[in-house]
Amino acid sequence: MLKHIAALIFLTISLSAVVFSQTDGTVNISIKTIAKSGSSYSPKHVLAMWVENESGALVKNLEVSAAKRRQYLYNWNSKSGGNTSDIVTGATISAHTTHSKTWDCRDKSGTLVEDGTYKIITEFTSEHAQGPVNAISFTKAAGGITLKPESSAYFTDLNLVYTPKSTTGI
Hints:
Blueprint: H1 2-19, E1 22-33, E2 46-52, E3 58-65, H2 74-80, E4 98-103, E5 116-125, E6 133-140, E7 145-147, E8 155-168
Antiparallel strand pairs: 1-4, 1-8, 2-3, 2-5, 5-6, 7-8
């Protein structure tokens, strides 16, 4: 009888590890913004970069450079409610450049997130209107990933590298 109970406990723990897998690791992302011609204030612009989960909920802010005119980052504001309590914000950016960030696979409260599909979203604007938005999706799991998505009209030199550390189950 004890053997059956021990086997059942082991099976339950093993299934929990599979169903609720949390792989620790880091995501390094770099993306270069390109000026939008005809923009009112270009090359000056405001920018936000954040992580979303599969459901589209904001997991963590990575960068918000928008001391003023933050209200024109419509997508970011919709997801974050303007809350920047999880990062240090920066001033309006004076020139287009490469933005390199690292995400430690943790949410705003510092808790390791479950494995699954995530997006790194980048949004910027040089005017009092919606600007370009870019999304790079990847799957966080036990295996590493290197992505080099194609450039678009306003984003180039895109790179995402996910490097797992180890796997633990809940």
